[in-house]
Amino acid sequence: MAAVDVLNSAGEKVSETQLPDEIFSVPVKASVLHDVVRSQLASRREGTAASKTRGVVKGSTRKLFRQKGTGNARAGSIKSPLRKGGGIIFGPSPRSYAYKVPKKVRKLALKMALSSKCEEKSLFVIDDFKLDQIKTKQLASVLEVLKLNNLLIVSDAQDDTLLELSSRNIPHVKVIKTAGLNVYDILKYKHLLLVESSIQNIQGRLS
């Protein structure tokens, strides 16, 4: 197991914690991470683009003019895609872009993402933020002391609502629970900060 320093809100080392190798020391494969991130982003697409076919466009169904003798093409409908205001041929229709990656692969990718942060020395552990109220300035000063920006914070503490609300106006900082931990967010942010109590929950989720 790898030992990591546990810091307090003043940036001082207060103890050490052990990170299990089966989660934080997994060989990283870019192809696995790529598949899972693509799946996540595809699932976020709304897929609401739509166009009207000739069957949906409003218009009269009468024949425009007689079949023979006019010299014109044999037009049968004003809703034809060939006419202005007519339907669209092969236009987009509402659809889902989501596709699933096997559960085992998603779990493995999450371990790889955490391992990559550990390998890059971009993973930090804090004992607690100790916020007694919603105060962005207070949280910003703690992050300034820790010298962390572009940061993902994982917290399952009792006051994580205070933490989440205090972080909303700080650019490039996001707070999530262990249950919401995902590959895309881990890779998106440069640094990962774990509240010490969340390590056990991560281990319980991924072991």
Task: Give an overview of the whole structure.
- There is one protein chain.
- This protein has helices at 21-24, 30-44, 103-119, 136-146, 160-167, 183-188, 196-206, and strands at 2-7, 13-19, 123-126, 151-154, 173-176, 191-195.
- A 6-stranded mixed β-sheet has the order 2-1-3-6-4-5.
- It contains 7 helices and 6 strands, in the order ββαααβαβαβαβα.
- The protein is an alpha/beta fold and 207 residues long.
- Helix 4 (136-146) crosses helix 5.
- The mean pLDDT is 92.
- The relative contact order is 0.18.
- The longest helix is centred in the middle third of the chain and has 17 residues, at 103-119.
- Strand 1 (2-7) and strand 2 form a beta hairpin.
- The radius of gyration is 27 Å and the shape is elongated.
Give a quick set of tags describing it.
RNA-binding; 7 helices; Large ribosomal subunit protein uL4; alpha/beta; rRNA binding; six-stranded mixed beta sheet; 207 residues; 6 strands
SSE topology:
Blueprint: E1 2-7, E2 13-19, H1 21-24, H2 30-44, H3 103-119, E3 123-126, H4 136-146, E4 151-154, H5 160-167, E5 173-176, H6 183-188, E6 191-195, H7 196-206
Parallel strand pairs: 1-3, 3-6, 4-5, 4-6
Antiparallel strand pairs: 1-2
Distance between the termini: 14 Å
- The class by helix and strand makeup works out as alpha/beta
Shape: elongated
Number of strands: 6
**Sheet of most strands:** 6 strands, mixed
- The percent of residues in helical segments reads 25-40%
- Strand percentage lies at 5-15%
Number of contiguous helices: 7
Radius of gyration from CA coordinates: 27 Å
- State the strand order across the main sheet: 2-1-3-6-4-5
Mean pLDDT level:
92
Low-confidence stretches: none
Order of helices and strands: EEHHHEHEHEHEH
